[in-house]
Amino acid sequence: MQQPQKTGNPDYRRRDNVEHEGYDGVHSNFHGELNNQNGVNLLEKILSRNNLNLAYLQVVRNKGAAGVDGMTYDQLLPHLREHREGLLTKLHSGTYRPQPVLRVEIPKPEGGVRKLGIPTVIDRMIQQAINQALQPIFDPTFSDNSFGFRPKRSAHQAIIQAKSYYEQGYKYVVDMDMKAYFDTVNHDKLMYYVEKKVQDQRVLRLIRQYLKSGVMENGIFQASEEGTPQGGNLSPLLSNIYLNEFDKLLATRGHKFVRYADDCNIYVKSKRAGYRVMESSTHFLEEELKLTVNREKSAVGSPLKRKFLGFCLLATKNGVKIRPHQKAKSTVKKKLKKITKRNRGKSIEVLFKQIKQLMTGWINYYGISEMKSFMNDLNGWLKRRMRQYIWKQWKTPRTKCRNLIQLGIEEQKAYEWSNTRKGHWRISSSYILHRSLTDEKLVQLGYMNIAAKYQLIHSNY
Q1: Which of the four pLDDT bands, split at 50, 70 and 90, describes residue 217?
Q2: Is the pLDDT of residue 6 over 80?
Q3: pTM value?
Q4: What is the pLDDT of residue 343?
Q5: Beta carbons within 8 Å of 418's beta carbon, 6+ residues apart
Q6: Sign of CA pseudo-dihedral 46, 50, 53, 58
């Protein structure tokens, strides 16, 4: 989900502005706002001082890994101080050549890998500058049912829209899954759609150069004849421009749909209608947009069971609710289990910090859901895992006895309990640790009560 930018605060920009400390700006010789944003002077707007400053700040905020040149985000400012004039000259003259993106593979929770492309920080800044200039041109043309990678829109809004369709009687969903979407976008078709709104040929050439910049994988260069590498700052906008054609088709046919990037759900009132929509949609995506529909994952089913953005719907006597899909719950429990594995050898402080980082983000995202029972159960299970971990860390009976006494257990009982022959997991739910390592003590040590955190977040919806 996109967060509101802080660049509107003058103090914030003064702290991180690329012009501070004597640096006189990453800018062109053109100044002021240009009225003809999508006309022949669009490149000047992209390379304007203010636009490049905002792009630089966004890249620094996002941080991220280095690209093929090894330059990190904190090395970007010194590089710009030294090479800004040469970079701008190349961009104005059309001689700038983007570097290949660095290919990395991210494991998917359900198996397989997601291929990401990491541009260099310089290319990330230029792409961000292009994105900032193009977003106001294209965003007003996008469908109200498109929620991914757009200002003031989120996955929460998308699932709320899906919920409203179900409440209107659209009880079946056509779940369209596109295979390797970001790697299969047709360049010529994409540029054709961009050219409808952008007349500056220099900008069009620069965008095409980014599409053709290639991929570096295991030290081997691969040309890119199709696709917009997932991971680039410009790719989300380009993907929306491309799939906006699909949105137009669905709107023309009067369909109820929700799209978040390449995840698209179309809501219908019967299975028969669903299969008909599935067939026509597949034909358009494959024949007109040259994409590949994953027939194994695409299906017509119930929104109560089909996963969309990690969520499902839940029909109750009090109306339709939103719930996390079972896979989302299983995935987060596996991650917690990995963090709290009792032989990790990490300090309690490190574990509590990792749990807090993971669960804060997870609860902020899934806090819109109805899952009170799940969060209470998960909270109890997690506290038991932590008691087991601490008991294992104490190792010897002598250390256990000493720590139990420090926790307020009388000496005789501490001696008896420390010499128990019960296993770690059994002890973790026993009276021994519930009386010594109480919930209050775990909180003092840094544990975040995830059930209470969920209740706090959920109450805001």
Answers
A1: confident
A2: no
A3: 0.84
A4: 87
A5: 397, 398, 400, 401, 404
A6: negative
Q: Is the pLDDT higher at 316 or at 7?
A: 316
What does the angle CA 143 – CA 148 – CA 153 come to, to the nearest 5 degrees? 80
CA distance 355 to 246: 41
Burial level of 197, CB count in 10 A (0-12/13-18/19+)? middle
Q: 165-174, 198-207, 416-425: lowest mean pLDDT where?
A: 416-425
Residue (of 28, 132, 35) closest to 84 by Cα position: 28
- Cα dihedral angle (81, 215, 114, 375), rounded to 10 degrees? 0
Beta-strand ranges (E) seen in 214-368 are 215-217, 220-222, 256-260, 263-268, 299-301, 311-316, 319-324
C-alpha span between 185 and 67 (Å, rounded): 22
388, HSE (Cβ side, Cα atoms, 13 Å) = 20
Mean pLDDT throughout 89-98? 94
Rg (CA), the chain: 27
Per-residue model confidence (pLDDT) at position 16: 37
Considering only CA atoms, which of 333, 347, 409, 327 is closest in space to residue 111? 327
In the chain, the amino acid numbered 410 is E
Write the DSSP symbol of residue 117. Answer: E
Find, among 285, 284, 286, 327, the residue nearest to 305 by Cα: 327
- Cα separation, 64 vs 60, in Å, equals 8
Torsion-angle region of residue 299: left (phi > 0), alpha (psi -120 to 50) or beta?
beta
Phi, psi for 424 (deg, rounded to 5)? -60, -45
Long-range contacts of 147-154 (CB under 8 A, 24+ apart): 147/258, 147/259, 147/260, 148/236, 148/240, 148/259, 148/260, 148/261, 148/263, 149/2, 149/236, 149/237, 149/239, 149/240, 149/261, 150/2, 150/240, 151/2, 152/2, 153/2, 154/1, 154/2
The percentage of residues in the chain with a pLDDT greater than 90, rounded to a whole number, is: 75
Sign for the pseudo-dihedral over CA of 138, 192, 181, 253: positive
pLDDT band at 111 (very low <50, low <70, confident <90, very high): low
Predicted confidence (pLDDT) per residue in 377-434, tens digit: 999 999 999 999 999 999 999 999 999 999 999 999 889 888 988 888 998 888 888 8
**Residues 6 or more apart in contact with residue 164 via CB below 8 angstroms:** none
**CA 366, 371, 374, 377 torsion-angle sign:** positive
- Which residues touch 258 (CB under 8 Å, ≥6 apart)? 145, 147, 158, 159, 161, 162, 165, 264, 265, 267, 308
Helix (H) or strand (E) holding 248: helix 235-252
- Identity of residue 385: R
Average pLDDT of the chain to the nearest whole number: 88
